[in-house]
Design goal:
231 residues; alpha/beta; 6-stranded parallel sheet; 10 helices; 6 strands; globular
Length: 231
Amino acid sequence: MPHDTAPSTARTTAPAGPIRILLADDHALVRRGVRLILDQEPDLDVVAEAGDGAEAIELARAHDIDLAVLDIAMPRLTGLQAARELTALKPGLRILMLTMHDNEQYFFQALKAGAGGYVLKSVADRDLVAACRAAMRDEPFLYPGAVTALIRNYLDRARHGEEAPDQILTPREEEVLKLVAEGHSSKEIAELLFISVKTVQRHRANLLQKLGLRDRLELTRYAIRAGLIEP
């Protein structure tokens, strides 16, 4: 796979010392286990831990980090949403998604969000260290066995003349939808996303119109079906 296709400013050079890692997962036990795996390696150093996607963004602003390891399913902002924000915030930051979901759709979404690798929690003890080092070399990492499924999925769609559909919602609308479904007020959403209350209300009205829904309850049901929140 060819390298150096992006502008030279898009990536930082490899760090001289240990790779500084931000670890985000909403389960403290999972974070502890992952940290144990990473801290055993002299070239890997977990410098910050977050319990959700929004906190991960706050910590990324406050810490000098090289790599973010993000769980996909987290409160407030998912790992995918946080990855999009982090990619915009720090273009040189490498990102890995850590997940329990062996799912092609999540993998494609992770790539679109800016992640360079996708690691299953069930085999993190085997794959995560290699994935971290691959990410710092700007090499993609995909857990073994998924390539065949991804190629088969792509060929099936191509055979039927189907293309992967673009998301009906913009990334910002998806963020607002998730927070509305979780019960946050417009004021709380505005503070979390650093936008005005008026902008939140406009996004909410657009969501209802786009999705053909009537109220918060229907938005919540849609968010569950879309995998943004857990039922």
